[in-house]
Design a protein that fits this description.
With 389 residues, the chain is an all-alpha fold. Helices cover 76% and strands 0% of the residues.
């Protein structure tokens, strides 16, 4: 029997509306906020449910933070909760990037973006580095096997600048084989849970209505493919989008694409919401809506379809061991992504100082709001960028 929720559906939607409106720092920071707020502070979600959600979000293709939000909504309110949490989390940042897209088109670009992002990017590194540290210390502990998986995945992510689903699965299988060999559990009831993890469970495309049917259909198909076949955090979708948007379809030029990524990093909510900005530049509001639907509908389906099996079989020793292994691998990949991003964002002594001070302030001042930190970093960037360049 499903445990009674210690919160209402309205409270859940308000939380994710707030997180989607002020949650800066990208996927690493966002999953950290969810853990801090829902597990540690409010006790709405158990440690086990959070770990299951994080594992499912890493196993399935699509943006990490959005899928975790959907799963946490599913925990007590099933499909309705997943739908409410997903919409509440995504809509605020979608509206913001559409508004910025309108200003971008109307006023001919964002010449101040590079200077502001100079400071914001460095502060974001500090925020996500601290989040990665907390996830690591909480979930890896002193287990040598988990540490080995964690370090291997982190090193691979730094080396390849990408994330591998095979490392996630491999980490889970290794811990499963060590802690709970197959002979102890594998039976008829386990087959559906394993089958549900398959990356080819379902894919979806957006159906567009509006101005240019052929263009909207192209946008829907392309972004559905991005949402259905890109694994890991929202940051992992950037190289895929670059190849299609700039090179294959030539919808945007290099400068516009860089601005799109900057907009995504400077707005709260999921980083992958940059698809709304890109869609707007291609085909206005219809393009933004179709691009967002094409990206998020597949990840929504990839969350709610396997979720019942995670809930039903999640307490079995073998699946618990598998979850621990995948979680260690997932956090390793997140930590590796922090290093990769730092190499690109920390370019001189000023950005290094901003990142260190941001992390230090968040460490010492427990209730310091991240949006205020990001705003100050943007101002520092606008002032310091001309002098350092």
């Amino acid at each position: 029997m499903m445990q009674r929720a210690p919160y209402s559906l309205a409270e859940l939607s308000l939380y994710f509306l707030k997180l989607g409106s002020i949650g800066f720092g990208g996927p690493v920071a966002l999953v950290g906020y969810m853990y801090r707020d829902l597990v540690e502070n409010r006790h709405w979600i158990t440690e086990e449910d959070y770990k299951e959600g994080l594992t499912l979000a890493q196993l399935m293709p699509g943006p990490l933070a959005a899928q975790l939000a959907m799963y946490l909504g599913y925990v007590h309110y099933r499909i309705v909760g997943a739908t409410v949490a997903g919409i509440a989390f995504i809509v605020p940042s979608f509206l913001m990037v559409v508004a910025i897209g309108w200003a971008y088109v109307r006023y001919g670009g964002l010449p101040w973006m590079q200077a502001a992002f100079y400071g914001v990017g460095a502060a974001v590194i500090g925020i996500i580095a601290l989040s990665a540290y907390k996830l690591t210390s909480k979930n890896i502990g002193k287990d040598k096997l988990l540490w080995a998986i964690y370090l291997l995945t982190a090193a691979f992510t730094v080396w390849s600048e990408s994330e591998s689903i095979w490392l996630f699965l491999g980490g889970g299988v290794l811990v499963w084989l060590v802690r709970a060999p197959p002979k102890r559990w594998l039976g008829k009831g386990a087959a559906p849970a394993l089958a549900a993890l398959g990356p080819n469970a379902i894919s979806s495309g957006a159906v567009a209505t509006g101005l240019d049917w052929s263009l909207l259909a192209q946008i829907g198909a392309f972004f559905a493919k991005a949402g259905a076949f890109v694994f890991g955090s929202g940051l992992a979708i950037v190289p895929f989008l670059y190849g299609g948007v700039v090179h294959d379809y030539q919808w945007l030029n290099e400068r516009q694409f860089v601005d799109a990524v900057a907009v995504a990093m400077m707005t709260p909510g999921p980083v992958v919401i940059t698809v709304g900005f890109i869609g707007y530049l291609i085909a206005g509001l219809p393009g933004a809506v179709v691009a967002a639907l094409g990206t998020f509908v597949p990840c929504y389906l990839f969350t709610i379809l396997p979720a019942p099996y995670f809930k039903k079989y999640g307490k079995r020793p073998a699946l618990v061991a598998f979850v621990d292994g995948v979680t260690a691998s997932a956090i390793g990949a997140i930590t590796g992504a922090v290093i990769v991003l730092a190499e690109r964002s920390i370019s001189d002594w000023m950005t290094a100082a901003i990142a260190i001070v941001a992390a230090g302030l968040l460490w010492k001042v427990k209730k310091l709001p991240e949006p205020a930190l990001v705003a100050v970093a943007a101002i520092i960037g606008l002032l310091a960028f001309p002098a350092t360049h």
